[in-house]
Design a protein that fits this description.
- With 282 residues, this protein is mainly β.
- The protein has two domains: 39-166, Immunoglobulin-like (Sandwich); 174-280, Immunoglobulin-like (Sandwich), CATH 2.60.40.1850.
- It has helices at residues 5-27, 90-93, 159-166, 174-177, and strands at 39-47, 61-67, 70-76, 82-86, 104-109, 115-125, 132-133, 135-138, 143-144, 147-155, 182-192, 203-208, 211-217, 223-228, 231-233, 243-247, 255-261, 268-277.
- An eight-stranded antiparallel β-sheet has the order 15-14-17-18-11-12-13-16, with no helix packed on it. Strands 5-6-3-2-1-10-7 form a seven-stranded antiparallel β-sheet, with helices on one face.
- The radius of gyration is 26 Å and the shape is globular.
- The N and C termini lie far apart (89 Å).
- The relative contact order is 0.13.
Length: 282
């Protein structure tokens, strides 16, 4: 027996209203407030591994875009050896349907004027100042888990200007920091050049009053002298990678140095900065 037409209409109307209400309930769920206004910022992108980091030319900085509460940071990496990123774990990245982050080709300019093409990525940021998972895929087809943090947003879109402002950060001497005389180790960060060179970290340091001498070991045997504050320093070894003992005028601020390399067709002086992290002194 068929139901009266009016009853069928009432039934279908009730179903449609229920579906609309259910959809409305889902859409009314509020996403977390990012705590920052929509706009463009220069932010710091920190990783858990020195082999995975922002290109040296940008000194751990990327461009953070906030739109309708959603945050994405664009970072230029150090080479083209990372071919995909995934906002999650390496295990999840390999599952069917996983949406991988595809690279862009970015041009970076180092302090010596050398330019290079590297891969960049737009990385979704779930929250500022909170660690989140970011997996990477290398050229050999292996996935690796990493943790990253995005912090310290500064309004604007000029990374070089922010780096220039940070160059004036307060520096500190050993006595100001309360570092005792004697031998210690300290984490040291190298920036500048083409990004291919590195130095051993932590490095050995010797403290006497406000005088600090650091032992800098390069990743290459081809550096034949360094210049710090106008003074030339020769290597202290004759075999293996180049080793220098140089003064550290202050901690926690980039120290400008020049290193001459013989690895090219002609000797070439390259400008670098070394930053010695006082919090890491042991």
């Amino acid at each position: 027996m068929k139901k009266p037409k009016s009853i069928r209409i009432l039934f279908y109307t009730t179903v449609i209203v229920a579906l609309i209400l259910m959809a409305g309930c889902g859409s009314s769920e509020q996403k977390p407030d990012p705590g920052i206004a929509d706009g463009t910022y220069v932010a710091t992108f920190t990783t858990d591994n020195p082999m995975f980091h922002v290109n040296e030319a940008n000194q751990d900085k990327g461009i953070l875009t906030v739109e309708n509460g959603n945050m994405t940071i664009h970072v230029s990496l150090q080479s083209k050896k990372i071919v995909n990123l995934y906002p999650g774990t390496a295990e999840d990245a390999q599952k069917d349907g996983a949406e991988l982050l595809e690279p862009t080709t970015d041009t970076v300019t180092y302090s010596d004027g050398f330019t290079d093409e590297v891969y960049g990525f737009d990385v979704p940021v779930p929250a500022l100042d909170e660690e989140f998972d970011l997996a990477l895929l290398g050229t050999k087809g292996n996935w690796y888990d990493h943790k990253v943090v995005v912090s310290d947003p500064v309004e604007g879109d000029d990374i070089s200007a922010v780096i220039g402002e940070n160059a004036g950060t307060q520096a500190a001497t050993p006595s100001e920091l309360g570092i005792s005389d004697g031998e210690h180790t300290v984490e040291v960060t190298l920036d500048g050049g083409t990004g291919r060179a590195s130095v051993d970290s932590p490095a050995q340091i010797r403290i006497k009053g406000d005088e600090c001498i650091a032992v800098i070991t390069w990743s290459s045997p081809h550096y034949d002298y360094m210049i710090v504050d106008g003074q030339r320093y020769e290597p202290v070894n004759t075999e293996g990678n180049s080793v220098f003992e140089i003064p550290v005028p202050y901690f926690d601020k980039a120290v400008k140095v020049i290193a001459d390399t013989t690895a090219m067709s002609e000797p070439h002086e390259i400008e670098y900065t070394l930053t010695f992290d006082s919090a890491s002194v042991k």
